[in-house]
Structures are given as structure tokens and as C-alpha cells.
């Protein structure tokens, strides 16, 4: 029985919610590791400037020893200071991004893919599934990019010099709008679409041509 558009959207909503619960801690750690290099570069520049300004009075100072931040260190620090909730910082913003993404993506892909089906009982050609995945993925990615910008800002634990701190989704949205303008919410949209399009196109091709089922059939069968 064909699903209605509303049921397709509800299915996407459920899928997006489950995905967020599983992947938010990894997303959180990824952002911290990406931020670590930026913050370290700022500190190094400030230290060099301070050393130059005081070199005539205090002489040459020993260079600071650089330490590389690891995912394990970040995880331990978050668990020690904030518990499990620390790994889910920005959960609300992540839900705000990924649930609408899934609500847009799955129905759009399903309906685009059906355009390539000559018969409702026959799968669409693999290239149709690929193109449908690319178009649906990039469209959904651009549509929710403002939520992605807010999510990334909220999940950045370390702040650079003169960078704002945010108390929540509304506070973050307000400050970005006031200080950077509405175009700030589209930062990275082009690159995000370029990443998401082939990712979902390939994923749908792999699913629709039955590679997973083929691999499962190769596993030894247990006899009853």
C-alpha cells in the first residue's frame, strides 16, 4: 500500500530522531577536534606577540610546548565535568537540523525515484536512484543549513578571542542575525550540499541494487 506524503514525512521524522540519538556524541567530538586546531593557532599567535613585546625586558623565553588534543581526552573531560549530558550538548539544535532534513529527504527521494520506474513493481535503474539521492540530499542539506550553523556554534566548547558565547538556540540565532546578518545562516551551504549529494546518492544506489541483500545471502545459513 502506498504511503501518503504525511506518513512518509513521519517516517523520516522517526528515522532522523533515532539517528540523532546515536550520532550526537560523535558529532560533538568531531567539532571539538576541529576547533582545537583553530584555538591552538590563536593562542600561539598571541603568545608570539607577547614574547616579542617583552623580549627586550625579559630576554628570550622558552617556546610553549604544543599538546595535541585527542578525542579520548575530550570525552574524559566532558564525562568528568558534565557527565553523559556533556556528550549531548547541542542535542536540541541537532534535532532541529536532522529531523527536518529527514522529513524533507526521504519523501523527496521516494517520489523522485518513482519517476524512473516504468512499472511500480520494478525497481528504478541505479542511475535514477543515484540522481534522486543526490538531488534530495543536496536540497535537504541547503534547506536546513541555518540549523546546522546554529548547532555548530552551540557545540563549540572553546571560544576564540572576542567570540560570542550562547545560552541556547534562540540566543545563538539572535546574536548571529544581529552581528553577522542573515547570510551567515547560509555559510557552508554550498560545501555541505557537495558533500551530502554524492553521499546519499551512493547510499541509495547501494541499497536499491541490493548489495546488502547479496552480501547477506553469502553468509552461511544455519540449519534448523
From TrEMBL:
GO molecular-function terms, A-Z: L-aspartate transmembrane transporter activity; L-glutamate transmembrane transporter activity
Repeat positions for Solcar: 3-115, 124-213
PROSITE patterns per UniProt: SOLCAR
Cellular localisation: Mitochondrion inner membrane
Residues passing through the membrane, by range: 195-216
SUPFAM superfamilies assigned: Mitochondrial carrier
Record keywords, A-Z: Membrane, Mitochondrion, Mitochondrion inner membrane, Transmembrane, Transmembrane helix, Transport
Gene Ontology biological-process entries: malate-aspartate shuttle
Chief subcellular location: mitochondrion
InterPro entries with a match to the protein in the record: MCP_dom_sf, MCP_transmembrane, Mito_Solute_Carrier
Membrane topology recorded in Swiss-Prot or TrEMBL: Multi-pass membrane protein
Single GO cellular component term: mitochondrial inner membrane
KW Transmembrane helix (keyword) present: yes
Record bears the keyword ATP-binding: no
Family affiliation: Belongs to the mitochondrial carrier (TC 2.A.29) family.
PANTHER family linked: MITOCHONDRIAL 2-OXODICARBOXYLATE CARRIER 1-RELATED, MITOCHONDRIAL GLUTAMATE CARRIER 1
Name listed for the protein in its UniProt record: Mitochondrial glutamate carrier 1
Organism: Podiceps cristatus
Amino acid at each position: 500500500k502506498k504511503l501518503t506524503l504525511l506518513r512518509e514525512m513521519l517516517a523520516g521524522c522517526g528515522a532522523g530522531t533515532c539517528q540523532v540519538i546515536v550520532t550526537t556524541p560523535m558529532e560533538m567530538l568531531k567539532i571539538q577536534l576541529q576547533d582545537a586546531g583553530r584555538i591552538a593557532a590563536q593562542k600561539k599567535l598571541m603568545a608570539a606577540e607577547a614574547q616579542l613585546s617583552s623580549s627586550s625586558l625579559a630576554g628570550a623565553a622558552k617556546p610553549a610546548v604544543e599538546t595535541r588534543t585527542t578525542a579520548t581526552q575530550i570525552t574524559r573531560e566532558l564525562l568528568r565535568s558534565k557527565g553523559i549530558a556533556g556528550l549531548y550538548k547541542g542535542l536540541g539544535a541537532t534535532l532541529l537540523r536532522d529531523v527536518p532534513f529527514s522529513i524533507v529527504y526521504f519523501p523527496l527521494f521516494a517520489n523522485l525515484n518513482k519517476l524512473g520506474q516504468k512499472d511500480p513493481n520494478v525497481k528504478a535503474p541505479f542511475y535514477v536512484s543515484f540522481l534522486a539521492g543526490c538531488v534530495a540530499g543536496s536540497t535537504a542539506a541547503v534547506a536546513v543549513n541555518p540549523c546546522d550553523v546554529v548547532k555548530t556554534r552551540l557545540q563549540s566548547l572553546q571560544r576564540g578571542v572576542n567570540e560570542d558565547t550562547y545560552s541556547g538556540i534562540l540566543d545563538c540565532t539572535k546574536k548571529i542575525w544581529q552581528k553577522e546578518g542573515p547570510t551567515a545562516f547560509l555559510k557552508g551551504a554550498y560545501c555541505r550540499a557537495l558533500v551530502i549529494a554524492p553521499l546519499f546518492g551512493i547510499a541509495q544506489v547501494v541499497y536499491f541494487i541490493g548489495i546488502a541483500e547479496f552480501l547477506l545471502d553469502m553468509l552461511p545459513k544455519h540449519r534448523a
